[in-house]
Amino acid sequence: MMQGHQPLESCPVRQVMQGIFGKWSTLLLLALAERPYRFGELRRLVPDISQRMLTQTLRDLERDGYIYRKVYPTKPPSVEYGLTDLGTSMLTPLNDLVIWANDNFAAVDAARKRFDAAGTD
Predict the structure, then answer these.
(1) CA atoms of 26 and 20, how far apart (whole Å)
(2) CA distances from 37 to 28, 58, 110 (A)
(3) SS3 for 106?
(4) CB of 44 within 8 A of CB of 52?
(5) Is 103 left (phi over 0), alpha (psi -120 to 50) or beta?
(6) d(CA 61, CA 28)
(7) Which residues pair with 69 in a beta bridge?
(8) Does residue 1 carry a pLDDT above 60?
(9) Backbone dihedral region of 47: left (phi > 0), alpha (psi from -120 to 50 degrees) or beta?
(10) Dihedral of CA 104/110/116/121: which sign?
(11) Which helix (H) or strand (E) holds 5?
(12) For residue 42, what are the contacts with CB-CB under 8 A and spacing of at least 6?
């Protein structure tokens, strides 16, 4: 898929995919596909993510242009996150991949078990 002899670290596909497929990124993007959420709501939706990791993942998604961050002047300030047009445009291929992963989980799990049982010789 790469054109020419471009180094892997500067490959545009790799650059984009890293931001989408971080440990928490896909889950947060799919949650935000439902509707915009406040920070605390996202924290409750994904209880096993730390506050620090949630903040960092949201910042990364905002930096890449997939989500927006809107601060409301309340006391304390309320912050809402939602998908941008770019983030929304990614939902169809992302949903297709999620469906594929769900449909093929058993095959992947079986392959892992076979590999693990064979050892690492």
Answers:
(1) 6
(2) 10, 12, 37
(3) helix
(4) no
(5) alpha
(6) 9
(7) 81
(8) no
(9) alpha
(10) negative
(11) none
(12) 28, 31, 54, 58, 81
**Burial class of residue 107 in the structure, from the number of CB atoms within 10 Å of its CB (0-12 exposed, 13-18 middle, 19+ buried):** exposed
Residue 30, amino acid: L
* CA torsion, ordered 36, 71, 89, 64, to nearest 10 deg: -130
Q: What is the DSSP string of 35-96?
A: --EEHHHHHHHSTTS-HHHHHHHHHHHHHTTSEEEEEE--SS-EEEEEE-HHHHHTHHHHHH
24-54: pLDDT as tens digits: 999 999 999 999 999 999 999 998 999 999 9
DSSP-assigned beta bridge partners for residue 83: 67
Tokens for 112? 């892992």
Sign of the torsion formed by the C-alpha atoms of 86, 32, 28 and 98: negative
Of 61, 52, 51, whose CA–CA distance to 29 is shortest?
61
Edge-to-edge strand ranges of the sheet holding 78-83: 37-38, 78-83, 67-72
Whether residue 9 has pLDDT greater than 80:
no
